[in-house]
Fold each of these.
Amino acid sequence: MKTIWWIRRDLRLRDNQALTAALNHGDQVIPLFILDPTLQQSGYVGPQRLAFLYAGLADLDEALRQRGSRLIIRAGDPVEQLARLVAATDATAVYAEADVSPYARRRDRQVAAQLPLYLTDGLTVLPAGAILKENGEPYTVYTPFSRKWKSQPWSRAILPAPEQIATPDDVESLPLPAEPALPATVPFVPGEAAAAALLRRFRDGLIYRYSDDRNRMDLDGTSTLSPYLRFGMLSAQTAAAAAVEALQAAPHAAARKGAETWLNELIWREFYQAILYHFPEVLGAAFRPEMRQLQWVNDEALFDAWTAGQTGYPVVDAAMRQLAATGWMHNRARMIVASFLTKDLLIDWRWGERYFMQQLVDGDPAANNGGWQWTAGTGTDAAPYFRIFNPTLQGQKFDPQGDYIRRWLPELASLPANMIHEPAKMSVAQQRQYDCRLGEDYPAPIVDHHEMRPKALALYKVR
């Protein structure tokens, strides 16, 4: 019997429940990826993430070929392409990992209405709809969600990658798209092996300093695994199991705190996937109804300065240029630039959410939306609307010597640590001394943070 393993966000052979189910069902498995024009042409998709996906598919194809199989590529409407492949191969089942986005669930319902589609878990450690209150309602606050999550049993046994996968020789396949190609500036090697190596490196050392270092933009203090989790090159269960393993092996209390903090971050990912599952409307509107009528200013010139990293606030500009160059941004930086956009520039969080999705290699609808709504104060477990980050103080605290800023803003590289966070305060003589002229080499601040804070508070109070 032939079965189809429909690959979507699970570009891996190890710990893949959909692949395992397909192998258990039939003696021949067809690994299929469908180039879906609805997703490829979405205004929320950018070239760097597409390039990372295509490179990851090429890596998966190579891993399959080493096992006697190969990746089958089709393009077009998923319902039509699956129906054609089922008819051409007499496949008796289609297995896929369940997703939570509104489009994915709608697509899967359409497929299931016509074909024998079986969905497995695997996007998250625990199924997105599994963590509920005693009354059956979903959680909308992270802390009680995380307590309930931690109380639930889950197996840390990781499914091995199959040694052999038999695939019919006569199934036609399109070539993988050659463009967009992955830029050399993107610092992530695509594929399952690269993800496993990164996880080992993090688990064996960096995780124990994670609690102390994770907010420092100038340090190598995070796992940088988010792109791999986004495309399932690493399973959520493998990551969580590594966190628990590190927690149990921690040599002292500070190390345990580091491992526990990273596990909590993985649970944040679970939480946001659950929110999108239960409340799909968050992709287009504030979760909190009272926040849906905020009168944003939405100045396009200010938005363009923000996207270009030309706001005159060094930590904001460094972060935005890191994003444009690499397709990634430190999580503390994401909060800083999101707060600046919404509460200093008074621009709708949805503008930033969309721009991030166009740029981020790890752009995930649930996590990206959750992060933006948290910072904007419009979401489920939101920061209070009156919490407004001071970008200068944030830079001084989390990039104290200015090393992060110097890396991404070479025009400020010569400034000493006591000036680099506030170049606008330089005298004319100091501008000449450090060869950095305000308004020429680096912009003056496009807004005054201290003037914008009361305006932001007024905007939110009028809701």
Amino acid sequence: MTSPTFDTVRTAATVFRQALVRMDRDEFVSLANFPVGACGDAAPLLGHYLLDQGFGTWTYVNGERPQGNHGFESHAWIEQEGLIVDITADQFADISDAVIVTTDQSWHSQFRVADATHPARIDIYDDYTRATLRRMYDRALEAL
């Protein structure tokens, strides 16, 4: 495993996000309006990609924050030893960066994190979800 640096992780995350943007997403409802509404699937896809690139296992983190009178809005990202990587935060009006690689938790700490975090990998899900994520991942790799 390569010890990730900000720059190497940012480069890999940027390359992967660009692949998600370029790939044919018509088949995948969750990625159709990328980055809007795509974080739940983009996070494990990115985690799997970073694992494949030799950066070790990442943790899938999701949380909710209050959203006016409408209840809550949710968001997902990945982390490893305090390093946050987020390729879909720009779906929110208060974020303009397409790729976030940071140890600063100030923005992400607005989200109340669920207790059930897990490895950000494709192979941990049920058969249907794993197959769907694998198709997404393969399409993204084709778009690299």
Amino acid sequence: MDEIGVVDSLDESECLRRLATQQLGRLVTHIGNVLDVFPVNYVVTGGGDIVFRTAEGSKLFELTVNDEVLFEVDDHTDAGAWSVIVRGHARRLETEAEIEAAEQLGLHPWVPTLKRNYVRVTAAEITGRAFGFAPEPDRSGVHVF
């Protein structure tokens, strides 16, 4: 916990546990100075990789030009919130064995579109933080700029 006692760093196993509780994340791609953010529904594999499906288009094109991605997931309750960031590499699954294994994950598009491509994000680094909600501290004696 940090010095004010309201933010906890999450270890990698806790980050993976929390990732597995959700279904919606944000994929961040970049080509040169252009960053794009795409919401995707996903699953976490037993090995800790993130898999999602996508159609042909800018998301798939961008991650094939530059496979370095960020993937972010968060959640909140009345008592607190958390956020997990995965820094890693994404690649389209191409072999028949990879695609068959991905089809067993139970990943289905949320919108009625054909998404024939499976993408796997393999983490290079996973970080996360949890935040406890509480009232703002008293401002008396605090210099406001």
Amino acid sequence: MIKQVSIYTANTKGAMRKITKLLKDNGINLIALVTNDSAEFGMVRFLASDPEKALAALEDAGYMARITRVIGVRIDDECGGLDHLLEALYQSNIDVNYIYISYDRSAKSVIAVFDADGAAEIESSLKTRGFEVMNDRDMALND
């Protein structure tokens, strides 16, 4: 599993810029990022070069943030790569809460990042099906 930082923030002009500037000023590289919004608040989820440092910087700046564990899986960078993973999850009767993708520059491959209940069993199932499941050490290589 890999560490993801999640932030709740006001949905206002410049809100994302404040977050990215804070991370930049603290020397934290973004590896992947996804945002979801509502009328007043938004959720920002991201993978970072140093999740603990990102969390500390965000909390020091007054953000409500936390680290959660998510599953990262390498998928083929071709038509149907994500579908292949989703088919394996579907066949294993796994419900995905959310998913986003990132590109691993060092390995030149795509990483699907997702949240689902029963992570240890899911990782084992995916490994059995031939997928490469990422860990924090793998993500540090993306820095």
